[in-house]
Design brief:
- The protein has helices spanning 13-23, 34-44, 54-61, 92-108, 129-140, 198-206, 275-285, and strands at 50-52, 72-76, 80-84, 116-120, 143-149, 155-161, 164-167, 170-171, 187-191, 212-216, 224-230, 236-246, 251-252, 260-261.
- By secondary structure, the chain is of the alpha/beta class.
- It has two domains: 8-45, no CATH class; 72-285, 2-enoyl-CoA Hydratase, Chain A, domain 1 (Alpha-Beta Complex), CATH 3.90.226.
- Helix 4 (92-108) runs parallel beside helix 5 (129-140) and helix 5 (129-140) runs parallel beside helix 6.
- The radius of gyration is 21 Å and the shape is elongated.
- The N and C termini lie far apart (59 Å).
- The relative contact order is 0.15.
């Protein structure tokens, strides 16, 4: 924690260490230290670091079968494509399945004919951002899209090449994404209070992109990256080490507000109306790429 935590320069480590060892005094087995580890993580104050005991860690990071409810693509009126991304966390197998299913959803939305895109991140609670970027890479377009920044200002760049994500020039896998017939389409990004962590990283990747506008509510507020440390008994220390930065160099460490704030009407009479999506569609249909002669 002292070497890698994002907020390490703001922590009194002598105090944290003293409290942790005091809390763990008399420990007879590994599990007896869990409380001290959790307290030390809480002392960091980043709101994102977490500790997973062995059973919880196995469930979270294991290779069990997964389904991605909400991962869908469809074509909207006026030639607008729609893709919705949920969060994804687990094994490499899960990430591969997510990318296959997500790219299929993009293709289903009519990638070859669409004039613009809605990227719905309102249910993207986080996990691993790289499979998400592999799905929306062709929509983002090739080039630098963001970076991770540590406590000392060191950065690790994200980019898209041939529709697929790269980190510091190294491919994150999954091969090339399906290219679009129309390059650089306008994009409406939908965000909400559940958009968190890796979901917020995708929001940041679209920040500063030309012909892009966000709609909805501010995000959850942890646009930061964690690294998992697997302990000897199967527990996992998930430590917040970096914050997200967009293509302009602006870093984020708090809830990200949308360009256009819209809160859906909670009344029963409005239950079937998605006002955020409607506003996004209306904006897209006014863009040059989607205007009909």
């Amino acid at each position: 924690m002292e070497k890698h935590a994002l907020l390490r320069h703001k922590v009194d480590w002598a105090d944290v260490r003293s409290r942790a060892f005091s809390q763990a005094r008399g420990a007879q087995k590994t599990a007896d230290t869990y409380g001290a580890i959790g307290s030390a993580l809480h002392a960091l104050g980043d709101g994102h670091s977490a500790f997973w005991e062995p059973d919880a860690a196995k469930e979270r990071y294991g290779a069990s079968a997964v389904s991605f409810d909400g991962l869908e693509g469809r074509s909207l009126k006026g030639g607008v494509g729609y893709i919705s991304l949920p969060g994804v966390q687990g094994s490499q197998e899960a990430y591969d399945q997510y990318v296959r299913q997500g790219r299929s959803a993009v293709a289903k939305a009519g990638a070859a004919e669409t004039c613009g895109w809605v990227v719905d991140l309102r249910s993207d609670t986080g996990g691993n951002m790289w499979p998400m970027l592999a799905v929306v890479g062709p929509i983002l377009g090739d080039g630098e899209v963001g970076a991770l920044e540590d406590a000392d200002g060191n950065t690790s760049g994200w980019s898209i090449k041939d529709g697929s994500p790269y980190e510091n020039g190294e491919s994150r896998g999954w091969g090339d994404g399906q290219p679009f017939a129309k390059s650089a389409p306008p994009v409406a990004v939908l965000t909400g209070k559940r958009t968190g962590s890796a979901g917020e990283a995708v929001v940041v990747a679209f920040r500063g992109r030309p012909d892009t506008r966000s709609f909805g509510e501010q995000t959850y507020g942890v646009p930061t990256g964690n690294k998992g440390y697997h302990l000897s008994d199967g527990a996992v220390l998930s430590l917040t080490e970096v914050k997200d930065a967009d293509r302009t160099g602006r870093a984020y460490d708090a809830p990200i507000p949308p360009d256009v704030e819209i809160v859906n009407d909670p009344r029963p009479v409005a239950r079937d109306r998605d006002e955020v999506l409607q506003a996004a569609q209306n904006w897209l249909l006014k863009q040059a790429a989607c205007r009909r002669p």
